[in-house]
């Protein structure tokens, strides 16, 4: 599992972090409607009770049950309702239950999010939820990925961390890090296939990338899905830092909402990245909106009227002219609907 880096980690994250240490898990319990975060010792006890109840129903150990929660922070879970729901879910377990599970874990999501990739003799599939507080580490998101491949726990962990680094951790909707972020990868070995590490990593990356893009596409109030691609950076880390600075700029995001290819806001955001993080000549920047170079050498480029930002997907490319590395961060525009939805969330 890869879990939130937020220091105020929710109780289910604390439980799951401990439970995965031995590399073994037989079940995952996810609830929507309450985050069980900032709930103190009582919240930790509720996470434990959840695992124990599921374990008793499944005939397994509570130490092998992972727990995930999503919803409002600061309120206790309705444990009688939750445990009854766990019992009902166990009774209804089915190989065809994946879609129902993906729907059940939604909060402000408007659609369920699932993905699948097929390798030679094995399958990787996953589901995710998340529509707001999308920012590394990961997003306010839960994701459970399963495979029938035969992969040992250490290799599984390494593959997941690399996949998350290049996919979920490149999603940055609103710069807000959740207390509950969790990505879990379970391997049953049921196929009897032990794939080459590269083949398994490719399939896992495909699923994580697909789910990541679905998260961006369903971001709260969003009208545009934006890919900020930084090229010719000195290092990949530098490229990512610059892309993230642009993607987190509210001025940039509101400009995209207004269908304004405002390259000035882009280079202003680029300039906030310290030289120690990303070395580049601030007077040699190029910026393209959907392929139109509106900024050349940090000055005026082609006519901005040539840029059409009416479509859902937008590509903004920044060329640093500082090396051969690149990175892409996925974000979205900032709209009136986002403000309205989050101003009313707790009610």
What is the H-and-E element order?
Answer: EHEHEHHEEEHEHEHHHEEEEEH
Ends: how far apart? 32 Å
- Can you identify the CATH class of the largest domain? Alpha Beta
The CATH topology of the largest domain is what? L-amino peptidase D-ALA esterase/amidase
Q: Main sheet: which strands, in order across?
A: 11-10-9-12-8-13
Shape: globular
**Alpha-beta content class:** alpha+beta
Oligomer designation: single chain
Radius of gyration: 21 Å
The domain tally reads 2
Count of helical segments?
A: 10
What value does the average pLDDT take? 93
Number of DSSP E strands: 13
Q: How is this structure best described in words?
A:
With 347 residues, the chain is α+β, with helices and mostly antiparallel strands. The protein has two domains: 2-217, 4-Layer Sandwich (L-amino peptidase D-ALA esterase/amidase), CATH 3.60.70.12; 225-343, Ubiquitin-like (UB roll). Helices cover 34% and strands 23% of the residues. It has ten helices and 13 strands. It has helices at 11-19, 40-58, 79-91, 98-104, 153-166, 197-217, 236-247, 250-257, 263-270, 336-343; strands spanning 2-3, 27-34, 65-72, 113-119, 122-129, 142-147, 182-187, 225-233, 286-289, 292-296, 299-300, 313-319, 325-332. The strands form three sheets. A six-stranded mixed β-sheet has the order 11-10-9-12-8-13. Helix 1 (11-19) packs across helix 2 (40-58), helix 2 (40-58) runs parallel beside helix 3 (79-91) and helix 7 (236-247) crosses helix 9.
């Amino acid at each position: 599992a890869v879990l939130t880096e937020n220091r105020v980690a929710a109780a289910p994250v604390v439980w799951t972090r401990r439970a995965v240490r031995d590399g073994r898990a037989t079940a995952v319990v996810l609830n929507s409607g309450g985050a069980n975060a900032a709930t103190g010792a009582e919240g930790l006890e509720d996470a434990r009770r959840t695992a124990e109840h599921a374990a008793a129903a499944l005939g397994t150990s509570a130490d092998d049950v992972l727990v995930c929660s999503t919803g409002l922070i600061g309120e206790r879970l309705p444990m009688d309702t939750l445990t009854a729901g766990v019992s009902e879910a166990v009774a209804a377990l089915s190989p065809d239950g994946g879609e129902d599970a993906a729907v059940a874990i939604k909060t402000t999501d408007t659609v369920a999010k699932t993905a699948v990739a097929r390798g030679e003799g094995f399958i990787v599939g996953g589901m995710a939820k998340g529509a707001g507080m999308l920012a590394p580490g990961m997003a306010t998101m839960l994701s459970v990925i399963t495979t029938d491949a035969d992969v040992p726990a250490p290799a599984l962990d390494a593959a997941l961390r690399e996949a998350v680094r290049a996919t979920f951790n490149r999603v940055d909707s609103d710069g807000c890090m959740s207390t509950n972020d969790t990505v879990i990868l379970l391997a049953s070995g049921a196929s009897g296939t032990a794939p080459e590490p590269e083949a398994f990593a490719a399939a896992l990356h495909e699923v994580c990338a697909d789910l990541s893009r679905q998260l961006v596409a369903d971001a709260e109030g969003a009208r545009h899905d934006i890919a900020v691609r930084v090229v010719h950076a000195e290092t990949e880390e530098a490229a990512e830092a610059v892309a993230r600075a642009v993607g987190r700029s509210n001025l940039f995001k509101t400009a995209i909402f207004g269908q304004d290819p405002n390259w000035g806001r882009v280079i202003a955001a680029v300039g906030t990245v310290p030289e120690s993080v990303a070395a580049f000549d601030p007077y040699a920047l190029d910026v393209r909106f959907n392929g139109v170079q509106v900024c050349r050498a940090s000055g005026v480029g082609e006519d901005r009227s040539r840029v059409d930002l009416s479509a859902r997907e937008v590509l903004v490319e920044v060329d640093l002219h500082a090396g051969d590395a690149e990175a892409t961060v996925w974000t979205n525009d900032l709209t009136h609907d986002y403000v309205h939805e989050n101003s009313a969330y707790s009610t």
